[in-house]
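Figure S7 source data.
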Amino acid sequence: QIERLIEATRIVASSAGSDVIKGLTQTPKSLPPWYFYDDRGSELFEQICELPEYYLTRTETSILQQYAGEIAKITGACELVELGSGSSTKTRILLNAYQQLGYPLRYLPIDVSAGILESSARQLLADYPSLQVHALAGTYELALAQLLPTQLSSRMICFIGSTLGNLQPQQCDVFFSQITNALQVGEYFLLGIDLQKPKHILSPAYNDRQGVTAAFNINMLDHLNRRFEGNFDTTQFEHWAFYNQTEHQIEMHLRSLRSQTVQLKSLNLTVNFAASETILTEVSRKFDLNTIQQQLTAWGLIPRHVWTDANQWFGLLLCQL
Ligand code: AVI
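Tokens for the predicted N,N-dimethyl-L-histidine complex:
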């Protein structure tokens, strides 16, 4: 009998707040973007994906719909590992393609939010009778280090949704060495990236009219309050996001509306904010297809196929170790 149960493995998802202490005691202040994704933050992110201004999800979905069959034919049967799986909605397009070719389905979603991980894994098990799921709750770094050798003939690590853009360039060397360590020669890496485009399209995607992105940004403070016994007054911070054209990145901040002091009791941390002082909560880098292909090659992942949409707004790259 094939084992199909979720063997949800909970990995310690943080370095017990040392990253928060570091970020809030340096100048300028910053926080790691993975603190967006408590269960509420993951819900808000799902809402962002549906916003009219947030073209990323729609565009990547259309590329996947067009090319998933081709991807499955190229890779053959393989175990799908997904970093930042969230609701796994787009992954279903890939699972359908592998299923249509009669391949065995084995899926290892990795996400910091255990709630969304578990609920989406259960839904997938109900919808795909032959699917095996092994869900890993934790940061990419910790989860990748826990991966066992694949149980199928091959493996593909999927990193879609342009989450690569949320890593700072200096984090990429370590990240890609973890990716290549988790793959055998000949195995695959599927990367979805948002491409450079005019500011008038990028800026509204992070400043939506309904204020969902603002709520997503502010929710990080609620998450820190819960997690570290904090007393951030979320009414005293505002969302601020803009496109930095020189760096080709959206920069998302929380701006203090007045001078104030915040405590995070369980971290033994007191933080002073000047009026208008900001915390950088996320960069969202926008890529150039030629440059990223060169970088991937330097990291040991050879781009074999590159797909994009009619507007060239989003790129999907199938790479091989
Ligand atoms: C998950 N990540 C790719 C999103 C992005 O567009 O950078 C996170 C996000 N931040 C604000 N809106 C969406």
